[in-house]
Amino acid sequence: MSQINFTKTLSAGVGAYNRTVGQWWVDQTRNKAHAVAYKNIASHVVRCAKKNSGLIIDYGCGTGRIMKRLVDALPGWTFLGIDGSQVMLRDAEAWARAKRKKHSAGIKFRCATLPDFSTPAVKADIIVFTFPNMLSPASGRCPFQRLFQEDRDLAWLLARKQEKGKKATELFEQLFMSRVVSRNLRLLLRKGGLCVRVDYCQGDRHELGRFDQLSTLFEEGSLSTKQAHLRPHKFFKLLTSQYYESAVIRDVHAQTKDQDFLEGGYLISLLQAM
Ligand SMILES: C[S@@+](CC[C@H](N)C(=O)[O-])C[C@H]1O[C@@H](n2cnc3c(N)ncnc32)[C@H](O)[C@@H]1O
Question: Is 135 in the pocket of ligand 1 (CB under 6 A)?
Fold first, then answer.
């Protein structure tokens, strides 16, 4: 599996998760580092679920390893996993079928290319977004640039501050699409609802460089300080964040071959929908 050319395969979009990348990811989710991380993340989500019932959405759920734990821990709750890979969802369906026999509330999955701004039928109390690797081919990004022009301008401003030429364009695309995904997370939540997001990271927020701190706030939607003449719209309030050292960071190393990603872990951030 280490023979996968990730740059080429991932550039095709989410369909990559229906082929070799999907099998690679399924293998990753079964290793010890991921099992420990999923258990820890699920315990964070359970602490957020103060009511006896409600709706939890797992955005980009993959094989639904976190949902599987939550279904057991929160029997009164309803669950919806959304992902663009049929192969990932088929794996998730396999465990869900067995759970449904005991679990009275619903466990559903939806196959959709994300971000998806069609109006949601229901709003979630909690949304979980873990180890994102949201893929969108260039053609799919243009409509969002028309839809979110302020975000586009801010993403350009930040990217050009940090990089030049082709690297600035690449950084712009990353910042802009991450921001659009965060807007989509917000749309799927009720006001006051919680987003538990888990990002690969190489240290606690305060240990990150100045630009990484700023870009993280921009991408997740919690930045409100003016950048040059532009003030970002804040749609999430950052409540807490906690860093955990973990070998899951090697997922990033496997894909980039960058030695910097041999060490690190993940950051769990708790955000409240404004
Ligand atoms: C790295 S996996 C993480 C899966 C899961 N959140 C977890 O922690 O196990 C990324 C997931 O995002 C999905 N994905 C990537 N790009 C997507 C897109 N544009 N639309 C929908 N799903 C996408 C993939 O199919 C894959 O299941």
Answer: yes
85 lines ligand 1 (CB under 6 A): yes
For the chain, domain boundaries: 6-273
3-state secondary structure of 223: coil
User: What whole-number distance in Å separates Cα of residue 194 and Cα of residue 272?
Assistant: 5
With a 6 Å cutoff on the Cβ, whether 14 touches ligand 1 is yes
pLDDT for res 142: 87
Per mean pLDDT, which range of 76-85, 93-102, 259-268 is the poorest? 93-102
CATH for 6-273 is 3.40.50.150
Reported as type and span, the H/E element at residue 11 is none
Tokens 């989509």 belong to: 184
Residue nearest ligand 1's atom 13 by CA: 60
CA of 152 to the centre of ligand 1 (A): 23
pTM equals 0.96
Q: What is the mean pLDDT of residues 24-46?
A: 97
Mean pLDDT of 221-240: 96
Of 27, 18, 13, the closest CA to residue 254 belongs to 27
Which three-class secondary structure state does DSSP give residue 86?
helix
Rounded Cα distance, 7 and 139, in Å: 17
Q: Per-residue pLDDT for 124 more than 70?
A: yes
